[in-house]
Amino acid sequence: MSSKKAYDYFEALLGLSKFSLQASELLKKTISDFHTATLEEKIREMHNIEHSADIAKHDMIEHLIKEFLPPIEREDIINVAQQIDDVTDAVEDVLMCIDMFNVKKIRPEIPKFTETIEACCKSMYVSVEEMRNFKKSKKLHAEVVEVNRLEEEGDALYINGVKELYRNTSDPVDLMIWTEVYRKLEKCCDACEDVANEIESIVMKNS
Questions:
Q1: What is d(CA 6, CA 174) in angstroms, rounded to the nearest whole number?
Q2: What is the pLDDT of residue 207?
Q3: Are the CB atoms for 204 and 132 separated by under 8 Å?
Q4: What tens digit of pLDDT does each residue of 11-45 get?
Q5: Which member of 23, 46, 97, 105 has the lowest number of beta carbons within 10 Å of its beta carbon?
Q6: Chain centroid to CA 114: how far?
Q7: For residues 110 and 185, is the Cβ–Cβ distance under 8 A?
């Protein structure tokens, strides 16, 4: 009788990061071709991604509870899984914020921000993919550095965007709405950086 196949935690983490990437792709697509008539449909699509990610994370945790000897420390697996989940949640929050504030028109600088978020999620995905062979990987360090660079790009977009907003907008409602939207966008990049930093910490501990 063949033994039961071991649960692949690295593959599970990669699956979680795939949901983050899908969410970022949907956000970019929704913002670049924004229509209020289809926003509700896009939010449902986004929620389905987020809900599927939650189910996958819970499934991984259930396996981890019963695991005798995981490939890396349980705490490290849980931390990475939660931080990847935070990325997906942060991306979903952007669309929910836009819907909640009844935004009718997207500011022209916002699509660039969503492109940066998507790029950040792509580099995060590769970083997670390279975790399995971190001792031999020739790409992992470069991808972690790239996530950090993109997070700095996100910071600059946030600072410059809010600065431009307060220089050229006098409507207090618009100021409130877009300040919050910008904050949500920046949080996506911050969340990706948290994942990259956690992976780097795990590599240091296990090298």
A1: 53
A2: 76
A3: no
A4: 999 999 999 999 999 999 999 999 999 999 999 99
A5: 105
A6: 11
A7: yes
pLDDT tens digits for 108-131? 999 999 999 999 999 999 999 999
Q: What angle do CA 19, 24, 28 make, to 5 degrees?
A: 150
How many angstroms separate the CA atoms of 96 and 48, rounded? Answer: 13
User: What is the amino acid identity at position 108?
Assistant: P
Q: How many CB atoms lie within 10 A of CB 83?
A: 21
Rounded Cα distance between 76 and 126, Å, is 18
Q: State the CATH architecture for 9-206.
A: Up-down Bundle (1.20)
Q: What single string gives the DSSP state of each residue in 48-117?
A: HHHHHHHHHHHHHHHHHHH-SS-SS-HHHHHHHHHHHHHHHHHHHHHHHHHHHTT--S--TTHHHHHHHH
Decide if 24 contacts 121 (C-beta within 8 A): yes
Burial (Cβ within 10 Å: 0-12, 13-18, ≥19) of residue 137: middle
What is the rounded CA–CA span in Å between residue 110 and residue 179?
12
Residue ranges in the chain modelled with pLDDT below 70: 1-4
